[in-house]
Specification:
By secondary structure, the protein is of the alpha/beta class. Helices cover 34% and strands 22% of the residues. The strands form five sheets. The protein has an eleven-stranded mixed sheet, sandwiched between helices. It has a seven-stranded parallel sheet with strand order 5-2-6-1-7-8-9, sandwiched between helices. The chain is globular and about 75 Å long.
Length: 602
Amino acid sequence: MKYVLVTGGVVSGLGKGVTASSIGLLLQACGLRVTSIKIDPYLNTDAGTMSPFEHGEVFVLDDGGEVDLDLGNYERFLDLTLTRDNNITTGKIYQSVIDKERKGDYLGKTVQVVPHITDAIQEWIERVAMVPVDGKEGPADVCVIELGGTIGDIESMPFIEALGQFSYRVGPGNFCLVHVSLVPVLNVVGEQKTKPTQHSVRVLRGQGLTPNILACRSTKPLEENVKAKLAQFCHVPAENIVTLYDVPNIWHIPLLLRHQKAHEAILKELNLQRVAREPNLKEWTTRTEISSNLHDSVRIAMVGKYTGLSDAYLSVLKALLHASVACRRKLVVDWVAAGDLEDVTAKEAPEVHKAAWDLLKGADGVLVPGGFGDRGVQGKILAAKYARENKVPFLGICLGMQIAVIEFARSVLGMLDANSTEFDPETTSPCVVFMPEGSKTHMGGTMRLGSRRTYFTVTDCKSAKLYGDVAFVDERHRHRYEVNPDMISQFESAGLSFVGRDETGRRMEIIELPAHPYFVGVQFHPEFKSRPGKPSALFLGLIAACRRSDTILQNNGHLIKPVANGTSNGHFTVKSHQNGHAFKSSNGSLNGVYSNGNGVHS
Protein backbone atom coordinates (compact mmCIF):
# COMPACT_ATOMS: atom_id res chain seq x y z
CA MET A 1 0.00 0.00 0.00
CA LYS A 2 1.21 3.48 -0.92
CA TYR A 3 0.17 6.58 1.01
CA VAL A 4 -0.23 10.24 0.01
CA LEU A 5 -0.69 12.65 2.91
CA VAL A 6 -2.14 16.12 2.26
CA THR A 7 -1.55 18.75 4.95
CA GLY A 8 -2.26 22.48 5.06
CA GLY A 9 -0.35 25.46 6.38
CA VAL A 10 -0.55 29.22 7.06
CA VAL A 11 -4.37 29.51 7.08
CA SER A 12 -7.39 27.23 6.92
CA GLY A 13 -9.67 27.05 3.90
CA LEU A 14 -6.93 26.68 1.30
CA GLY A 15 -8.61 23.75 -0.41
CA LYS A 16 -6.91 20.67 1.00
CA GLY A 17 -10.05 18.64 0.27
CA VAL A 18 -10.14 19.71 -3.37
CA THR A 19 -6.40 19.09 -3.66
CA ALA A 20 -6.64 15.63 -2.09
CA SER A 21 -9.59 14.71 -4.32
CA SER A 22 -7.81 16.03 -7.42
CA ILE A 23 -4.70 14.01 -6.58
CA GLY A 24 -6.87 10.92 -6.15
CA LEU A 25 -8.58 11.55 -9.47
CA LEU A 26 -5.23 12.07 -11.21
CA LEU A 27 -3.92 8.78 -9.81
CA GLN A 28 -7.13 7.04 -10.92
CA ALA A 29 -6.58 8.48 -14.40
CA CYS A 30 -3.14 6.85 -14.31
CA GLY A 31 -4.82 3.46 -13.87
CA LEU A 32 -4.39 3.13 -10.10
CA ARG A 33 -7.05 2.22 -7.55
CA VAL A 34 -7.51 4.84 -4.84
CA THR A 35 -9.09 5.05 -1.39
CA SER A 36 -9.39 8.08 0.91
CA ILE A 37 -9.21 8.89 4.61
CA LYS A 38 -10.10 12.20 6.26
CA ILE A 39 -8.65 13.03 9.68
CA ASP A 40 -10.59 15.57 11.76
CA PRO A 41 -8.79 16.58 14.97
CA TYR A 42 -11.95 17.62 16.85
CA LEU A 43 -13.09 15.70 19.93
CA ASN A 44 -16.53 14.85 18.57
CA THR A 45 -16.95 11.17 17.80
CA ASP A 46 -18.56 12.13 14.50
CA ALA A 47 -20.14 15.13 12.79
CA GLY A 48 -23.71 14.06 13.59
CA THR A 49 -24.44 16.50 16.41
CA MET A 50 -22.73 19.53 14.88
CA SER A 51 -24.70 22.55 13.71
CA PRO A 52 -24.38 23.28 9.97
CA PHE A 53 -23.15 26.74 10.98
CA GLU A 54 -20.26 25.05 12.80
CA HIS A 55 -19.06 22.65 10.16
CA GLY A 56 -21.30 22.73 7.09
CA GLU A 57 -23.55 19.83 6.17
CA VAL A 58 -23.39 16.41 7.78
CA PHE A 59 -22.68 13.91 5.03
CA VAL A 60 -24.30 10.48 5.44
CA LEU A 61 -22.69 7.28 4.16
CA ASP A 62 -24.24 3.96 3.14
CA ASP A 63 -23.34 2.39 6.49
CA GLY A 64 -25.07 5.22 8.39
CA GLY A 65 -21.89 7.08 9.27
CA GLU A 66 -22.43 10.80 9.88
CA VAL A 67 -19.20 12.32 8.66
CA ASP A 68 -17.40 15.45 7.56
CA LEU A 69 -18.58 16.90 4.25
CA ASP A 70 -15.11 16.31 2.76
CA LEU A 71 -16.00 12.63 2.45
CA GLY A 72 -18.83 13.69 0.16
CA ASN A 73 -16.18 15.55 -1.79
CA TYR A 74 -14.16 12.32 -2.16
CA GLU A 75 -17.18 10.22 -3.11
CA ARG A 76 -18.24 12.65 -5.84
CA PHE A 77 -14.75 13.16 -7.28
CA LEU A 78 -13.64 9.52 -7.15
CA ASP A 79 -17.00 7.71 -7.33
CA LEU A 80 -16.27 5.72 -4.18
CA THR A 81 -18.54 4.32 -1.45
CA LEU A 82 -16.74 5.12 1.79
CA THR A 83 -17.46 3.92 5.33
CA ARG A 84 -17.64 5.69 8.67
CA ASP A 85 -14.12 4.42 9.45
CA ASN A 86 -12.77 6.49 6.55
CA ASN A 87 -13.37 9.51 8.80
CA ILE A 88 -10.99 9.51 11.78
CA THR A 89 -11.63 11.93 14.65
CA THR A 90 -9.82 12.54 17.92
CA GLY A 91 -12.97 11.39 19.70
CA LYS A 92 -12.97 8.02 17.91
CA ILE A 93 -9.29 7.42 18.62
CA TYR A 94 -9.49 8.30 22.34
CA GLN A 95 -12.69 6.30 22.74
CA SER A 96 -11.09 3.19 21.22
CA VAL A 97 -8.00 3.54 23.44
CA ILE A 98 -10.06 4.09 26.60
CA ASP A 99 -12.26 1.08 25.74
CA LYS A 100 -9.11 -1.05 25.45
CA GLU A 101 -7.79 0.29 28.75
CA ARG A 102 -11.06 -0.60 30.50
CA LYS A 103 -10.85 -4.12 29.11
CA GLY A 104 -7.31 -4.46 30.42
CA ASP A 105 -5.73 -4.78 26.98
CA TYR A 106 -2.72 -2.70 28.03
CA LEU A 107 -1.79 -5.09 30.85
CA GLY A 108 -1.67 -2.48 33.56
CA LYS A 109 0.64 -0.08 31.71
CA THR A 110 0.33 3.68 31.98
CA VAL A 111 -1.73 4.71 28.94
CA GLN A 112 -0.22 7.75 27.23
CA VAL A 113 -0.54 9.83 24.06
CA VAL A 114 2.76 8.30 22.93
CA PRO A 115 2.76 5.41 22.20
CA HIS A 116 -0.86 4.35 22.74
CA ILE A 117 -2.78 7.13 20.98
CA THR A 118 -0.23 7.41 18.16
CA ASP A 119 -0.19 3.63 17.70
CA ALA A 120 -4.00 3.58 17.56
CA ILE A 121 -3.94 6.24 14.81
CA GLN A 122 -1.45 4.26 12.73
CA GLU A 123 -3.33 0.99 13.20
CA TRP A 124 -6.61 2.68 12.16
CA ILE A 125 -5.05 4.09 8.98
CA GLU A 126 -3.50 0.76 7.99
CA ARG A 127 -6.70 -1.17 8.66
CA VAL A 128 -9.04 1.19 6.79
CA ALA A 129 -6.66 1.64 3.85
CA MET A 130 -6.96 -2.09 3.10
CA VAL A 131 -10.76 -2.00 2.80
CA PRO A 132 -11.91 -1.77 -0.86
CA VAL A 133 -14.34 1.11 -1.49
CA ASP A 134 -14.58 1.07 -5.30
CA GLY A 135 -16.69 -2.06 -5.71
CA LYS A 136 -13.73 -4.25 -6.65
CA GLU A 137 -12.03 -7.00 -4.71
CA GLY A 138 -8.77 -6.52 -2.87
CA PRO A 139 -7.17 -3.37 -1.46
CA ALA A 140 -6.52 -0.18 -3.42
CA ASP A 141 -3.07 0.81 -4.70
CA VAL A 142 -2.92 4.23 -3.05
CA CYS A 143 -4.55 5.74 0.04
CA VAL A 144 -4.92 9.53 0.01
CA ILE A 145 -5.07 10.93 3.56
CA GLU A 146 -6.17 14.48 4.33
CA LEU A 147 -5.18 15.92 7.70
CA GLY A 148 -7.76 18.52 8.67
CA GLY A 149 -6.83 21.81 10.31
CA THR A 150 -3.61 23.77 9.95
CA ILE A 151 -0.07 22.72 10.82
CA GLY A 152 0.69 24.15 14.26
CA ASP A 153 -2.78 23.53 15.72
CA ILE A 154 -2.58 21.98 19.20
CA GLU A 155 -5.30 19.43 18.50
CA SER A 156 -3.44 18.10 15.43
CA MET A 157 -0.20 17.28 17.23
CA PRO A 158 -0.93 13.61 18.13
CA PHE A 159 -1.82 12.96 14.49
CA ILE A 160 1.31 14.68 13.19
CA GLU A 161 3.46 12.65 15.58
CA ALA A 162 1.67 9.45 14.52
CA LEU A 163 2.05 10.27 10.82
CA GLY A 164 5.73 11.04 11.32
CA GLN A 165 6.23 7.62 12.86
CA PHE A 166 4.06 6.09 10.15
CA SER A 167 6.10 7.58 7.30
CA TYR A 168 9.29 6.17 8.87
CA ARG A 169 7.68 2.77 9.41
CA VAL A 170 6.32 2.31 5.86
CA GLY A 171 9.62 3.57 4.50
CA PRO A 172 10.79 5.60 1.49
CA GLY A 173 8.92 4.88 -1.72
CA ASN A 174 5.66 4.23 0.11
CA PHE A 175 4.85 7.66 1.53
CA CYS A 176 4.47 11.05 -0.18
CA LEU A 177 3.62 14.27 1.68
CA VAL A 178 1.91 17.08 -0.23
CA HIS A 179 1.84 20.33 1.73
CA VAL A 180 -0.75 22.91 0.65
CA SER A 181 0.34 26.41 1.60
CA LEU A 182 -0.37 30.04 0.82
CA VAL A 183 1.81 32.36 -1.23
CA PRO A 184 0.06 35.71 -0.80
CA VAL A 185 0.45 38.75 -3.02
CA LEU A 186 0.43 42.07 -1.19
CA ASN A 187 -1.51 44.66 -3.17
CA VAL A 188 0.84 47.44 -2.15
CA VAL A 189 3.94 45.67 -3.45
CA GLY A 190 2.44 43.26 -6.00
CA GLU A 191 5.05 40.68 -5.09
CA GLN A 192 4.51 37.01 -4.25
CA LYS A 193 5.64 36.45 -0.67
CA THR A 194 7.25 33.11 0.29
CA LYS A 195 7.84 33.72 4.00
CA PRO A 196 4.49 32.27 5.23
CA THR A 197 5.18 29.02 3.37
CA GLN A 198 8.77 28.93 4.63
CA HIS A 199 7.57 29.21 8.22
CA SER A 200 4.84 26.61 7.67
CA VAL A 201 7.34 24.09 6.25
CA ARG A 202 9.74 24.83 9.11
CA VAL A 203 7.00 24.01 11.65
CA LEU A 204 6.11 20.87 9.71
CA ARG A 205 9.73 19.70 9.61
CA GLY A 206 10.15 20.53 13.29
CA GLN A 207 7.29 18.13 14.05
CA GLY A 208 8.87 15.25 12.17
CA LEU A 209 7.33 15.51 8.68
CA THR A 210 9.18 16.55 5.54
CA PRO A 211 7.14 17.65 2.49
CA ASN A 212 7.92 15.99 -0.83
CA ILE A 213 5.68 18.30 -2.85
CA LEU A 214 4.53 21.86 -2.26
CA ALA A 215 1.12 22.89 -3.62
CA CYS A 216 1.08 26.67 -3.38
CA ARG A 217 -2.17 28.62 -3.42
CA SER A 218 -1.82 31.98 -5.09
CA THR A 219 -3.82 34.34 -7.27
CA LYS A 220 -1.54 33.71 -10.26
CA PRO A 221 1.13 31.17 -11.31
CA LEU A 222 4.33 31.25 -9.27
CA GLU A 223 7.18 33.15 -10.84
CA GLU A 224 10.36 31.16 -11.48
CA ASN A 225 12.42 33.15 -8.97
CA VAL A 226 9.73 32.51 -6.34
CA LYS A 227 9.86 28.78 -7.06
CA ALA A 228 13.65 28.86 -6.77
CA LYS A 229 13.43 30.63 -3.43
CA LEU A 230 10.90 28.13 -2.07
CA ALA A 231 13.04 25.23 -3.31
CA GLN A 232 16.10 26.65 -1.57
CA PHE A 233 14.52 27.40 1.79
CA CYS A 234 12.00 24.55 1.97
CA HIS A 235 14.35 21.84 0.65
CA VAL A 236 11.89 20.75 -2.05
CA PRO A 237 13.00 20.34 -5.71
CA ALA A 238 11.66 23.09 -7.96
CA GLU A 239 9.94 20.52 -10.19
CA ASN A 240 8.01 19.36 -7.11
CA ILE A 241 6.51 22.79 -6.50
CA VAL A 242 3.12 23.32 -8.17
CA THR A 243 0.86 26.33 -8.19
CA LEU A 244 -2.84 26.12 -7.43
CA TYR A 245 -3.70 29.50 -8.87
CA ASP A 246 -7.16 30.97 -9.38
CA VAL A 247 -9.15 29.28 -12.15
CA PRO A 248 -12.79 29.62 -13.32
CA ASN A 249 -13.93 26.61 -11.28
CA ILE A 250 -12.47 23.76 -9.26
CA TRP A 251 -12.84 21.23 -12.06
CA HIS A 252 -9.74 22.78 -13.58
CA ILE A 253 -7.61 21.68 -10.60
CA PRO A 254 -6.89 18.11 -11.77
CA LEU A 255 -6.01 19.53 -15.19
CA LEU A 256 -3.81 22.12 -13.51
CA LEU A 257 -1.97 19.40 -11.58
CA ARG A 258 -1.52 17.29 -14.69
CA HIS A 259 -0.23 20.24 -16.70
CA GLN A 260 2.42 20.86 -14.03
CA LYS A 261 3.27 17.12 -13.98
CA ALA A 262 2.31 16.71 -10.33
CA HIS A 263 1.42 13.08 -11.05
CA GLU A 264 4.98 12.39 -12.19
CA ALA A 265 6.38 13.80 -8.94
CA ILE A 266 3.94 11.71 -6.85
CA LEU A 267 4.54 8.54 -8.85
CA LYS A 268 8.30 9.04 -8.53
CA GLU A 269 8.06 9.41 -4.74
CA LEU A 270 5.93 6.25 -4.56
CA ASN A 271 8.02 4.23 -7.04
CA LEU A 272 5.03 3.71 -9.30
CA GLN A 273 6.37 5.03 -12.62
CA ARG A 274 6.51 1.56 -14.18
CA VAL A 275 3.05 0.60 -12.97
CA ALA A 276 1.12 3.74 -13.89
CA ARG A 277 0.21 5.01 -17.33
CA GLU A 278 -0.14 8.53 -18.64
CA PRO A 279 -3.26 10.10 -17.07
CA ASN A 280 -6.36 9.85 -19.26
CA LEU A 281 -8.50 12.87 -18.50
CA LYS A 282 -10.18 13.20 -21.88
CA GLU A 283 -13.74 12.95 -20.55
CA TRP A 284 -12.90 15.25 -17.64
CA THR A 285 -11.49 17.85 -20.01
CA THR A 286 -14.51 17.61 -22.30
CA ARG A 287 -16.89 18.15 -19.41
CA THR A 288 -14.96 21.09 -18.08
CA GLU A 289 -15.24 22.74 -21.51
CA ILE A 290 -18.95 21.90 -21.83
CA SER A 291 -19.73 23.28 -18.39
CA SER A 292 -17.89 26.50 -19.13
CA ASN A 293 -20.09 27.15 -22.15
CA LEU A 294 -23.55 26.70 -20.67
CA HIS A 295 -25.83 29.67 -21.34
CA ASP A 296 -29.50 28.66 -21.07
CA SER A 297 -30.30 28.93 -17.38
CA VAL A 298 -32.62 27.15 -14.98
CA ARG A 299 -33.57 28.93 -11.74
CA ILE A 300 -34.20 26.95 -8.56
CA ALA A 301 -35.50 28.57 -5.38
CA MET A 302 -33.82 26.88 -2.41
CA VAL A 303 -36.11 27.48 0.58
CA GLY A 304 -34.29 26.72 3.83
CA LYS A 305 -33.19 28.01 7.23
CA TYR A 306 -29.40 27.92 6.75
CA THR A 307 -29.34 30.08 3.62
CA GLY A 308 -26.56 32.25 5.03
CA LEU A 309 -24.15 29.30 4.72
CA SER A 310 -24.37 27.41 1.45
CA ASP A 311 -22.09 24.63 2.75
CA ALA A 312 -25.06 23.57 4.90
CA TYR A 313 -26.69 22.33 1.67
CA LEU A 314 -23.55 21.39 -0.21
CA SER A 315 -24.65 17.98 -1.51
CA VAL A 316 -28.02 19.38 -2.60
CA LEU A 317 -26.25 22.09 -4.57
CA LYS A 318 -23.96 19.57 -6.20
CA ALA A 319 -26.84 17.25 -7.08
CA LEU A 320 -28.66 20.19 -8.68
CA LEU A 321 -25.48 21.02 -10.56
CA HIS A 322 -24.99 17.46 -11.81
CA ALA A 323 -28.58 17.36 -13.08
CA SER A 324 -28.50 20.80 -14.68
CA VAL A 325 -25.28 20.05 -16.57
CA ALA A 326 -26.75 16.74 -17.77
CA CYS A 327 -29.73 18.75 -19.05
CA ARG A 328 -27.38 21.33 -20.59
CA ARG A 329 -28.57 24.14 -18.35
CA LYS A 330 -26.69 26.80 -16.41
CA LEU A 331 -27.81 26.49 -12.80
CA VAL A 332 -28.95 29.59 -10.95
CA VAL A 333 -29.82 29.05 -7.28
CA ASP A 334 -31.92 31.70 -5.56
CA TRP A 335 -31.54 31.35 -1.80
CA VAL A 336 -34.79 32.08 -0.01
CA ALA A 337 -34.70 32.26 3.78
CA ALA A 338 -37.87 30.39 4.78
CA GLY A 339 -38.61 32.81 7.61
CA ASP A 340 -38.71 35.71 5.15
CA LEU A 341 -41.79 34.22 3.47
CA GLU A 342 -43.83 34.28 6.68
CA ASP A 343 -46.47 36.84 7.65
CA VAL A 344 -44.42 37.96 10.65
CA THR A 345 -41.68 39.21 8.31
CA ALA A 346 -44.29 41.02 6.20
CA LYS A 347 -45.07 43.15 9.26
CA GLU A 348 -41.54 43.58 10.59
CA ALA A 349 -39.60 43.88 7.32
CA PRO A 350 -41.96 44.25 4.34
CA GLU A 351 -39.15 44.82 1.83
CA VAL A 352 -37.42 41.59 2.86
CA HIS A 353 -40.74 39.74 2.67
CA LYS A 354 -41.42 41.07 -0.84
CA ALA A 355 -37.88 40.25 -2.02
CA ALA A 356 -38.22 36.66 -0.79
CA TRP A 357 -41.57 36.17 -2.52
CA ASP A 358 -40.24 37.76 -5.72
CA LEU A 359 -37.41 35.22 -5.74
CA LEU A 360 -39.81 32.33 -5.14
CA LYS A 361 -42.22 33.45 -7.87
CA GLY A 362 -39.39 34.09 -10.32
CA ALA A 363 -37.99 30.58 -10.03
CA ASP A 364 -38.55 27.72 -12.49
CA GLY A 365 -38.63 25.19 -9.65
CA VAL A 366 -38.76 25.01 -5.84
CA LEU A 367 -36.64 22.81 -3.59
CA VAL A 368 -37.15 22.46 0.16
CA PRO A 369 -34.18 20.57 1.67
CA GLY A 370 -33.90 18.72 4.97
CA GLY A 371 -33.45 20.32 8.35
CA PHE A 372 -34.33 20.22 12.03
CA GLY A 373 -36.20 22.59 14.36
CA ASP A 374 -39.25 24.78 13.90
CA ARG A 375 -37.60 27.99 12.67
CA GLY A 376 -38.81 28.79 9.16
CA VAL A 377 -41.29 25.90 9.03
CA GLN A 378 -44.28 28.14 8.22
CA GLY A 379 -42.32 29.70 5.36
CA LYS A 380 -41.52 26.27 3.95
CA ILE A 381 -45.20 25.33 4.15
CA LEU A 382 -46.08 28.48 2.21
CA ALA A 383 -43.46 27.63 -0.43
CA ALA A 384 -44.90 24.10 -0.83
CA LYS A 385 -48.41 25.54 -1.12
CA TYR A 386 -47.30 28.01 -3.78
CA ALA A 387 -45.63 25.24 -5.81
CA ARG A 388 -48.63 22.91 -5.48
CA GLU A 389 -51.28 25.47 -6.39
CA ASN A 390 -49.33 27.07 -9.24
CA LYS A 391 -48.06 23.83 -10.83
CA VAL A 392 -44.43 24.82 -10.22
CA PRO A 393 -41.99 21.85 -10.16
CA PHE A 394 -41.28 20.94 -6.53
CA LEU A 395 -38.88 18.60 -4.76
CA GLY A 396 -39.06 18.16 -0.98
CA ILE A 397 -36.28 16.26 0.77
CA CYS A 398 -36.69 14.70 4.24
CA LEU A 399 -38.27 17.58 6.21
CA GLY A 400 -39.26 19.01 2.82
CA MET A 401 -41.47 15.97 2.20
CA GLN A 402 -42.98 16.22 5.69
CA ILE A 403 -43.70 19.91 5.08
CA ALA A 404 -45.53 19.03 1.85
CA VAL A 405 -47.68 16.50 3.74
CA ILE A 406 -48.54 19.04 6.46
CA GLU A 407 -49.45 21.66 3.85
CA PHE A 408 -51.71 19.18 2.02
CA ALA A 409 -53.45 18.27 5.25
CA ARG A 410 -54.11 21.92 6.09
CA SER A 411 -55.11 23.16 2.63
CA VAL A 412 -56.84 20.14 1.08
CA LEU A 413 -58.08 18.06 4.01
CA GLY A 414 -59.03 21.12 6.07
CA MET A 415 -56.99 20.09 9.12
CA LEU A 416 -56.04 23.62 10.14
CA ASP A 417 -53.91 22.51 13.08
CA ALA A 418 -52.13 19.74 11.15
CA ASN A 419 -48.49 19.61 12.18
CA SER A 420 -45.51 17.48 13.11
CA THR A 421 -45.12 16.46 16.73
CA GLU A 422 -41.58 17.79 16.39
CA PHE A 423 -43.02 21.32 16.22
CA ASP A 424 -46.28 20.89 18.15
CA PRO A 425 -46.41 17.85 20.46
CA GLU A 426 -50.04 18.64 21.35
CA THR A 427 -51.47 18.88 17.82
CA THR A 428 -54.77 17.09 17.29
CA SER A 429 -53.79 16.26 13.69
CA PRO A 430 -50.30 14.71 13.94
CA CYS A 431 -49.39 14.21 10.27
CA VAL A 432 -45.75 13.57 11.16
CA VAL A 433 -44.78 11.58 14.26
CA PHE A 434 -41.68 10.46 16.15
CA MET A 435 -40.43 7.06 15.03
CA PRO A 436 -40.90 4.31 17.65
CA GLU A 437 -37.27 3.16 17.52
CA GLY A 438 -35.85 6.65 18.03
CA SER A 439 -34.22 7.92 21.22
CA LYS A 440 -35.39 11.09 22.97
CA THR A 441 -32.49 11.11 25.44
CA HIS A 442 -29.44 10.62 23.20
CA MET A 443 -28.83 12.70 20.09
CA GLY A 444 -25.72 11.19 18.46
CA GLY A 445 -26.22 8.27 16.08
CA THR A 446 -29.81 7.55 17.15
CA MET A 447 -31.66 8.54 13.98
CA ARG A 448 -32.71 6.27 11.13
CA LEU A 449 -29.42 6.43 9.26
CA GLY A 450 -27.77 5.09 6.15
CA SER A 451 -28.87 3.16 3.09
CA ARG A 452 -32.41 1.76 3.28
CA ARG A 453 -34.54 0.11 0.61
CA THR A 454 -37.65 1.79 -0.82
CA TYR A 455 -40.17 -0.28 -2.78
CA PHE A 456 -42.36 1.32 -5.43
CA THR A 457 -46.03 0.58 -4.78
CA VAL A 458 -47.18 2.49 -7.88
CA THR A 459 -45.24 1.29 -10.92
CA ASP A 460 -46.26 4.01 -13.39
CA CYS A 461 -45.40 6.97 -11.16
CA LYS A 462 -42.87 9.63 -12.17
CA SER A 463 -40.30 8.56 -9.57
CA ALA A 464 -40.28 4.93 -10.71
CA LYS A 465 -39.86 6.02 -14.33
CA LEU A 466 -36.98 8.32 -13.42
CA TYR A 467 -35.22 5.47 -11.62
CA GLY A 468 -35.61 3.32 -14.74
CA ASP A 469 -38.77 1.32 -13.91
CA VAL A 470 -37.06 -0.62 -11.12
CA ALA A 471 -38.93 -2.38 -8.31
CA PHE A 472 -36.94 -0.70 -5.55
CA VAL A 473 -34.14 1.78 -4.86
CA ASP A 474 -31.55 2.05 -2.10
CA GLU A 475 -31.04 5.59 -0.80
CA ARG A 476 -29.51 7.15 2.29
CA HIS A 477 -31.61 8.38 5.23
CA ARG A 478 -31.21 10.70 8.21
CA HIS A 479 -34.39 11.38 10.17
CA ARG A 480 -36.22 10.92 13.50
CA TYR A 481 -39.77 11.66 12.35
CA GLU A 482 -41.99 10.01 9.75
CA VAL A 483 -45.38 10.52 8.11
CA ASN A 484 -48.10 9.15 10.39
CA PRO A 485 -49.02 5.75 8.87
CA ASP A 486 -52.49 5.90 10.47
CA MET A 487 -53.44 8.89 8.26
CA ILE A 488 -52.33 7.52 4.88
CA SER A 489 -55.80 6.47 3.72
CA GLN A 490 -57.12 10.01 4.29
CA PHE A 491 -54.32 11.54 2.24
CA GLU A 492 -54.61 9.07 -0.62
CA SER A 493 -58.39 9.46 -0.85
CA ALA A 494 -57.79 13.20 -1.32
CA GLY A 495 -55.26 12.70 -4.13
CA LEU A 496 -51.84 12.53 -2.46
CA SER A 497 -50.12 9.36 -3.64
CA PHE A 498 -47.56 7.50 -1.52
CA VAL A 499 -45.72 5.74 -4.34
CA GLY A 500 -42.74 4.48 -2.34
CA ARG A 501 -42.65 2.68 1.01
CA ASP A 502 -40.22 0.67 3.12
CA GLU A 503 -40.21 -3.12 3.32
CA THR A 504 -42.98 -3.12 5.96
CA GLY A 505 -45.28 -0.96 3.85
CA ARG A 506 -45.99 1.32 6.84
CA ARG A 507 -43.14 3.80 6.51
CA MET A 508 -43.72 6.35 3.75
CA GLU A 509 -40.73 7.11 1.54
CA ILE A 510 -41.97 8.92 -1.61
CA ILE A 511 -45.02 11.11 -2.26
CA GLU A 512 -46.35 12.45 -5.55
CA LEU A 513 -49.27 14.48 -6.82
CA PRO A 514 -50.25 12.65 -10.03
CA ALA A 515 -52.05 15.67 -11.52
CA HIS A 516 -49.07 17.98 -10.96
CA PRO A 517 -46.27 18.36 -13.55
CA TYR A 518 -43.69 17.46 -10.90
CA PHE A 519 -44.52 17.48 -7.20
CA VAL A 520 -42.30 14.95 -5.44
CA GLY A 521 -41.31 14.50 -1.81
CA VAL A 522 -38.87 11.92 -0.46
CA GLN A 523 -38.02 10.90 3.09
CA PHE A 524 -34.49 9.95 2.05
CA HIS A 525 -31.60 12.11 0.81
CA PRO A 526 -30.99 11.39 -2.90
CA GLU A 527 -28.32 14.09 -3.06
CA PHE A 528 -25.80 11.97 -1.17
CA LYS A 529 -25.49 9.44 -4.00
CA SER A 530 -25.53 11.88 -6.90
CA ARG A 531 -22.39 11.86 -9.04
CA PRO A 532 -21.37 14.29 -11.81
CA GLY A 533 -21.57 11.56 -14.45
CA LYS A 534 -24.53 9.85 -12.75
CA PRO A 535 -26.93 12.55 -11.54
CA SER A 536 -29.66 11.69 -9.04
CA ALA A 537 -32.82 10.60 -10.85
CA LEU A 538 -35.11 12.85 -8.82
CA PHE A 539 -32.95 15.93 -9.36
CA LEU A 540 -32.90 15.15 -13.08
CA GLY A 541 -36.68 15.01 -12.95
CA LEU A 542 -36.84 18.40 -11.25
CA ILE A 543 -34.58 20.10 -13.80
CA ALA A 544 -36.36 18.40 -16.71
CA ALA A 545 -39.73 19.55 -15.38
CA CYS A 546 -38.38 23.08 -15.05
CA ARG A 547 -37.37 23.10 -18.71
CA ARG A 548 -40.78 21.60 -19.63
CA SER A 549 -39.12 18.50 -21.05
CA ASP A 550 -40.63 15.01 -21.03
CA THR A 551 -37.49 13.55 -22.59
CA ILE A 552 -36.17 12.06 -19.36
CA LEU A 553 -39.46 10.44 -18.37
CA GLN A 554 -39.94 9.04 -21.86
CA ASN A 555 -36.55 7.37 -21.68
CA ASN A 556 -36.78 5.82 -18.23
CA GLY A 557 -34.77 8.48 -16.50
CA HIS A 558 -32.18 8.88 -19.24
CA LEU A 559 -31.57 11.76 -21.60
CA ILE A 560 -31.68 11.12 -25.34
CA LYS A 561 -28.24 12.70 -25.52
CA PRO A 562 -26.75 11.99 -22.10
CA VAL A 563 -23.58 13.54 -20.84
CA ALA A 564 -20.99 10.75 -21.03
CA ASN A 565 -20.06 9.18 -17.74
CA GLY A 566 -17.49 11.27 -15.95
CA THR A 567 -17.36 14.52 -14.07
CA SER A 568 -18.44 17.95 -15.15
CA ASN A 569 -19.27 21.23 -13.61
CA GLY A 570 -21.39 24.20 -14.65
CA HIS A 571 -21.34 27.82 -13.64
CA PHE A 572 -23.97 28.95 -11.25
CA THR A 573 -24.65 31.98 -9.16
CA VAL A 574 -26.15 32.17 -5.72
CA LYS A 575 -28.38 34.86 -4.27
CA SER A 576 -29.71 35.06 -0.76
CA HIS A 577 -32.03 37.53 0.88
CA GLN A 578 -31.96 37.13 4.63
CA ASN A 579 -32.73 39.75 7.26
CA GLY A 580 -32.65 42.44 4.63
CA HIS A 581 -29.16 41.64 3.38
CA ALA A 582 -28.32 40.17 -0.02
CA PHE A 583 -25.63 37.53 -0.30
CA LYS A 584 -24.18 36.92 -3.75
CA SER A 585 -21.53 34.45 -4.73
CA SER A 586 -20.30 33.42 -8.15
CA ASN A 587 -17.38 31.74 -9.82
CA GLY A 588 -14.03 32.74 -8.47
CA SER A 589 -12.19 32.29 -5.22
CA LEU A 590 -13.58 32.48 -1.72
CA ASN A 591 -11.14 32.65 1.18
CA GLY A 592 -8.39 31.57 -1.19
CA VAL A 593 -10.21 28.41 -2.29
CA TYR A 594 -11.39 27.60 -5.79
CA SER A 595 -15.12 27.75 -5.61
CA ASN A 596 -18.07 27.37 -7.88
CA GLY A 597 -20.34 29.81 -6.19
CA ASN A 598 -20.68 28.02 -2.90
CA GLY A 599 -17.45 27.29 -1.13
CA VAL A 600 -14.65 24.82 -1.17
CA HIS A 601 -15.99 21.44 -2.21
CA SER A 602 -16.96 19.68 -5.40
